[in-house]
Design brief:
- Helix content is 78%, strand content 2%.
- By secondary structure, it is mainly alpha-helical.
- The chain has 2 domains: 201 residues, no CATH class; 99 residues, Orthogonal Bundle (Helix Hairpins).
- A 3-stranded antiparallel sheet has the order 2-1-3.
């Protein structure tokens, strides 16, 4: 009984973590898209909490499933806002939030209606393949076709009320497509979760070389930033230019200049006008390129050595299971 309670508590805790992650991403997305009215941000957050909470309760696939689902919802919200404002610029706020929620509610409602079938399908779907790709592309292309038709028609010339009605009608058609393709949508979400699990496993083996690279990168940034600040402080005249002209730099300015130099993104508000600083910046650029060269080589070496290490670990087990045939003992 105690073990069953622990498993139930662990499942609830994982579910809460997944929902919390989704809500945080949804709040960030809603904050970004909520520059017109208040209903749309509330709809995004509500859809994220309701959708992920319901889906994860049906298909407990871990935080990777939450990541894939939350990312998909964020992409959907972004496309809805950007494309909706391009073709339905005058649609009233009362139409935007319901139109956004229609496909989400249709998907969740059909998933609940077919929950037993979907749970059975997901439980036997343990590896991502391309077998379901044609079905996935089918409903995606169908929804894209509706969007293209909306862009081809002069909907943006209609009155605000007519634009709102057209937006709700178009999203109603998309809702019907999503509800009809609920199995394919769920399998796509599971595939994304499986891909994320594989990516996470690969990244785990690159933690040591990646951390070493970041530490060396940070060391170069700090050392050269200190050198720039010391050189500017010891010089009789300022060695750097800002939009206001030649000026002394603070350590924060030196860090900003050092990162811009090492990343080779180009100078913006701070740039040198002294030959000595230019030489020092050139040395930093060369050091950064060498670090990048050896860092990438080390990461690739660690990636290549992983299969050999796994094979070496499995060889003793293979010898135990299949011992080599020794010389035959004479009778």
């Amino acid at each position: 009984m105690t073990g069953r309670r622990h498993r139930a508590a662990a499942r609830v805790l994982t579910w809460l973590r997944a929902v919390a992650f989704t809500v945080i991403l949804a709040v960030l997305t809603a904050w970004g898209v909520g520059d017109h009215g208040q209903l749309m941000p509330v709809a995004v957050v509500g859809a994220a909490a309701l959708g992920l909470g319901f889906l994860y309760w049906l298909f407990p696939r871990g935080l990777h499933f939450a990541f894939g689902t939350a990312t998909g919802l964020a992409i959907y919200a972004t496309l809805f806002v950007v494309l909706g404002r391009a073709q339905f610029p005058l649609s009233p706020e009362w139409a935007r939030a319901p139109a956004f929620l229609l496909p989400v509610l249709a998907f969740l409602g059909m998933a609940w209606w077919r929950r037993r079938e979907l749970v059975s399908v997901v439980s036997h779907h343990d590896s991502h393949t391309l077998e379901e790709l044609p079905h996935t592309l089918g409903w995606i292309l169908a929804t894209a076709a509706i969007g293209l038709v909306c862009f081809a028609l002069p909907i943006n010339r209609l009155s605000p009320t007519m634009q709102g009605a057209a937006l709700v009608g178009a999203m109603g058609l998309i809702s019907a497509i999503v509800a009809r393709s609920v199995r394919d949508v769920v399998l796509l979400l599971v595939d994304v979760a499986l891909i994320m699990e594989e990516i996470t496993e690969r990244l785990r083996h690159l933690t040591v070389p990646a951390t070493a690279f970041l530490l060396m990168y940070a060391l170069l940034v700090i050392v050269f930033a200190a050198a720039y600040r010391i050189a500017d402080g010891l010089s009789a005249d300022p060695l750097f230019n800002q939009p206001s002209g030649a000026t002394r730099i603070t350590y924060a300015d030196a860090l900003h200049f050092s990162i811009a130099t090492l990343s080779t993104v180009g100078y913006g508000d701070i740039h040198p006008h002294d030959d000595g600083i230019r030489v020092l910046a050139s040395i930093q650029v060369i050091a950064g390129q060498l670090l990048l060269l050896f860092g990438v080589a080390e990461i690739l070496r660690a990636r290549r050595s992983r299969p050999h290490a796994e094979e070496a670990e499995t060889q003793p087990e293979r010898r135990e299971r299949h011992p080599p045939n020794g010389p035959e003992t004479p009778p």
